[in-house]
Design goal:
By secondary structure, the protein is an alpha/beta fold. It has one domain: Pyruvate-ferredoxin Oxidoreductase, domain 3. Strands 2-3-1-4-5-6-7-8 form an eight-stranded mixed sheet, with helices on one face. The longest helix is centred in the first third of the chain and has 14 residues. The chain is globular, with a radius of gyration of 15 Å. The two termini are about 25 Å apart.
Amino acid sequence: MVEIRFHGRGGQGTVVATILLAKAFFRDGYYVQSFPLFGVERRGAPVEAYLRFDREEILIRTNVYTPDHVVVLDKTLLDSTDVTLGLKTGGWILINGAELPAYPNSWSPYKLALVDATHIALNTGLGTRTHPIVNTPMLGGLAQVLGMPSMEAIAKAIQSEVPSKPKANIKAAKMAYEQVRVLEPVKHSKSASKRT
């Protein structure tokens, strides 16, 4: 079983991201669960959402305490939230950003990747300049670093579940899939390399 925790802010589509990802994994033959954890329910407030998937039926019904991977839709949360809490050694941390933020030495057991989902969302007309909707680009980036689910499954999930601008959302996911960067394992380095 694989468990993923999403960190975002209200209005960015964090919860919808887990639902779309669950639909995509289901299309690829997995059992899935997705569910949110809300604090204050307002735009801009921190939001967590979770996804589980497995080839076998999932019987567990608890929160996700030790995720395999973490997705950060808003890098400003790194200043106030320990996104590595419970994260398993070797897990991915995918961050929405153009440049590597300063990160502590305690992140060294993890794999880091960046995708500028904000830029992609703005270029594809998702949301507004002050409130870009970054969930579908983050799905594309995650699909690249994990090697699953298939982009075809993501596109079909978006097509069936996103009533507003489905073509733009699919385009954004595909752009992020191509543009995600896997970071070199050098602490506090500004260098990054595109995944091959």
